[in-house]
From TrEMBL:
GO terms for molecular function: L-ascorbic acid binding. SUPFAM superfamilies: Clavaminate synthase-like (SSF51197). It comes from Marinomonas pollencensis. PANTHER family: 2-OXOGLUTARATE AND IRON-DEPENDENT OXYGENASE DOMAIN-CONTAINING PROTEIN 2. This is Fe2OG dioxygenase domain-containing protein. Gene3D superfamilies: q2cbj1_9rhob like domain. Keywords: Vitamin C.
Amino acid sequence: MSMNSLQLARSLELPSREAMLQRAPSVQMFWNNNKTLLEAAWAQWETSEQERLTKIDDSLLDSALRDAVTESWNDPLQETKVANLMHEIAPDVFQFQLFDPERLADLRHYLDAVADAEIPLRPPYGIALNRGGAMLDARSEGYLAAPSFQNLYQELLDKYMRPIARLLFPETMGYDGQTFGFSIQYQANTDTSLRLHTDASSVTLNVNLNLPGETFTGSEVDFYDSMSGKMNRYVFEPGVAVIHRGNVAHAAHPITSGKRTNFVLWLYGKHGQTPSFHVPQTLADAHQRWTTPDQTPDSMAPF
């Protein structure tokens, strides 16, 4: 009896961690050769598990944010209601409640099922390899292609992140039509920290997925203030997102106990373009901010 897509995907042998870290040509070949198979496997998996999986959609989001964003899409002049939910925690670094903490268990239940699906997922390996993470965007090989997850992912980017970014950082408009995303997990004795770095994005959104009461120690994030030369330290809370320009240097301290799980989402322009933050820009009005770019995704992935 021939195997179906899900069975075939589960029978694949993943490239080794060493090969991934070395960017071996065989790793790229593995993902490229199995792209169609893996996408079909995720669709088949979700269909086969639909009675067991929790529904993931924008009902997982904080209701105050969801209502303010919906009002702003209907009438962009209401965007001050969104702005009022943003809290500056460091120069040009803002936090807001993205996910409803009481609904995070539903999202995590879905992600736990993903982890148990036995379908190969490519971990992020940018400046470091994060073994507990996964690529989320369709531009990335080995991404999480489950249809309902992709619907939620695109909604987070298009309906929420992009207009919020334009509201806070107006110069990024026009450099926000391309998307990128991945998940990360920090855990003591495995992947514990990330050195000081900037992102190849116009805007970065980093949201914590820990459940209420799912504590960790360490893993604070430092944001560098280039004006004062000081670091501003931040500790993530369940469902809270931090949004900042990609050129803001930041680092994750070593985690000493527990786990920290986050989604990291990027926006940037065609072929990786980002704005020059030191050149005066023509600022858009509210009605322009609350639009979706008519831009075809390119094939470039930052890593």
